[in-house]
Amino acid sequence: MTLTPTVAIVGRPNVGKSTLFNRLVGWRQAIVHDRPGVTRDRITGFVEVAADGDEAGGSIQLIDTGGLVPGDDPLGLGDQVRLAVAESDLLLLVVDGRDGLTPADETVWQELRATGKPTILVVNKADTTEAQERFGEFYRLGIDRQILVSAEHARGIGDLREAMLLALPELPQALPVDAPAVAIVGRPNVGKSSLLNRIAGESRALVSPVAGTTRDPVDTLIEHDGKRYLLIDTAGIRRRSKVSEAPEELAVMMARRQIERARVVVLVVDAAAGVTSGDLAIAGSAWEIGRAVVVAVNKWDLLDEEGRERLDRSWPRLHQILSNPPRVNVSALTGRAIDKLFPAVDRALATFATRLSTGEVNRLLEAIVRRRRPPSVERTPWKLFYATQVSTEPPTFMLFANRPLLRGDPYRRYLENRLREELDLSGVPIRLVVRGKPPRGRAAAGR
Q1: Which of 181, 179, 224, 232 is nearest to 201 (CA)?
Q2: Are 125 and 78 contained in the same domain?
């Protein structure tokens, strides 16, 4: 579903497309590295643009793509570029001004020109003498709109924004993406991108049996049964000690950042492998950040009875970390039970936003405290005075008592677990802030 005009950044590898994308969207969303081929999937961001003196302006959806190269393409990288071109209203053809016009640039333009899409030629690296001197070479391509920029140093970016605005005169007002963000995370090669493609109903993310194929986060806006969701596909998260390439290490860092962007995390687990230590580490990260979690056990169709028993034996470890998370056994390959994911995500979104009145919080906690005697220190039991909910997502409660409870205190865990049980918050973290009333002498001394 296209909400705003779409602009694709295209070109041969290593001409600065991702640097330009980051410069236009205003933050480092795409991975930038000085080795060709780092960007593989389509990366999406939104850019606010306005002409001089026009405060209204509008919003443009910007797509970063991998380098388009002729010849063999076993991973389908070129197909991803062509999909981005097909869904775009305008193309930014990026070339390296230092190199001048190359045969590879001409080959790329020949393919793009056949699409009939309006195009702006962006000659990058304007901060170099070579780019300034060779700027005229690119007029041979016959592209009318040609702009010299330095994506790294922000030179010419204002001119480019204005050119984009002129090329897309029917620009709607910026529309906030009100769809909840759902991050699809997991170890490498567990089927995250296949799952996203199955849900989206198209080849939206690059799928390959080679572990670590997805590196950049991919955002996909979908609609299901009248509801919208912003799905975020992420690079496979692996332990830092097992990350051998710099781009892959950057991808791991970015994948963790996507968990912070989301409200709900769909943790994809390989059914055949069972719950591994890597799955537990990712689950722990999502829980620590404070996100609701739904577990999608993928490749369920490949399990025999023995495999299912092995999976069930490993499940309690995940259950313990995520407090009985919703579990859906799916197959991204066949589409099995994919529709069951949405009710689980909807339920997680609803419980993640649980809100109680102060009266409800106090009545509930008073009942929980009565069930189990609070601990004593020097014969003085812990006593709850008052409680209130201070925020949602995750549900966070502030308790005022005669003394605090440390993070690892068993009674604190008891309160959290009973609250989660009473409110039916499976797979949703709870935050407790317990404030103790200082002794009278300490309070007086502080005055």
Answers
A1: 224
A2: yes
Short-list 137, 124, 147, CA closest to 14: 124
Looking at the fold, whether 348 and 362 belong to one and the same domain comes out as no
Omega prior to 394 cis, within 30 of 0: yes
Give CA angle at 186 (2, 349), nearest 5°.
Answer: 60
- Judge if pTM exceeds 0.70: no
Shared domain check, 214 and 98:
no
Indicate the number of domains in the chain. Answer: 3
CA distance 20 to 144: 20
Of 420, 388, 382, 385, give the one whose Cα is nearest residue 400. Answer: 385
Count how many Cα atoms sit within 13 Å of the Cα of residue 100 in the half-sphere of its side chain: 6
Q: What is the CATH number of the domain that holds 205?
A: 3.40.50.300
What CATH number is attached to the domain comprising 439?
A: 3.30.300.20
Question: Residue 287 contacts by C-beta under 8 Å, 6 or more apart in sequence?
Answer: 293, 321, 322, 429
Residues in a beta bridge with 401: 384, 436
Q: Residue 144 pLDDT > 70, yes or no?
A: yes
Give me the domain span that covers residue 94: 6-167
Work out the mean pLDDT of the chain and round it to a whole number.
81
Q: Which tokens hold the place of 140?
A: 């041979």
Convert the pLDDT of each residue in 402-420 to its tens digit: 999 988 899 999 999 999 9
Q: How far is CA 319 from CA 213, 284, 348, in A?
A: 29, 11, 15
CB 276 within 8 A of CB 318: no
187 and 328 in a common domain? yes
